[in-house]
Amino acid sequence: MITDVLRISGERVRLRAGTLYAALDRLEREGLVEADHEEVVDGRARRYYRLTSEGESRLAEEAERLRRNAETAASRLRARRPRPALTAALTAALTAALTAAHTAALSGGVCGGLA
Fold first, then answer.
1. Residue 4 parent element (H or E)
2. Within its chain, how far is the Cα of 10 from the centroid?
3. Can you tell me the distance from the alpha carbon of 18 to that of 45, in angstroms, rounded to the nearest whole number?
4. Residue 42, C-beta contacts closer than 8 angstroms, at least 6 positions apart
5. Rounded to 10 degrees, what is the CA torsion of 66, 67, 70, 71?
6. At residue 30, does pLDDT exceed 50?
7. Is the predicted pLDDT of residue 22 greater than 90, yes or no?
8. How far from chain centre, in Å, is Cα 17?
9. CA 30, CA 15: separation in Å to the nearest integer?
């Protein structure tokens, strides 16, 4: 599991054995996972777990919650990016205002508070 988490996370998440075992104990107490079988590998006992029905349901709910959060974040990022049509309109309006201000300054007049 530790190796899988490291690989799946692109090596951004490094679980320690104590953290993993504490999480598995909690998940087992909550009825979300259960021990499936044990075997001895290299002289050490290795326990395998599987999701319970409740665990599968909870995992599906959590995956959906995370998907919605990611979609909200992506939507907010899209809203922050300047839209090309809006940027072009702002550029045109600013160019027109600066041209008018420059023309007014050259003729000695005042344009929009700029001299």
1. helix 2-8
2. 15
3. 15
4. none
5. -150
6. yes
7. yes
8. 26
9. 21
Which ranges of 53-83 does DSSP label H, i.e. alpha helix?
A: 53-80
Give the 3-state secondary structure of residue 114. strand
Q: What is the mean pLDDT of the chain?
A: 84
In this model, does residue 97 exceed pLDDT 90?
no
Dist CA 66 CA 61 (whole Å)? 9
The amino acid sitting at 7 is R
Report the amino acid identity of residue 105. A
Asked if residue 17 lies in contact with residue 2, where contact means CB atoms within 8 angstroms, the answer is yes
Q: How far apart are CA 6 and CA 3, in angstroms?
A: 5
Task: Please state whether 112 falls in left (phi above 0), alpha (psi between -120 and 50) or beta.
Answer: left
Phi, psi at 10, each rounded to 5°: 65, 35
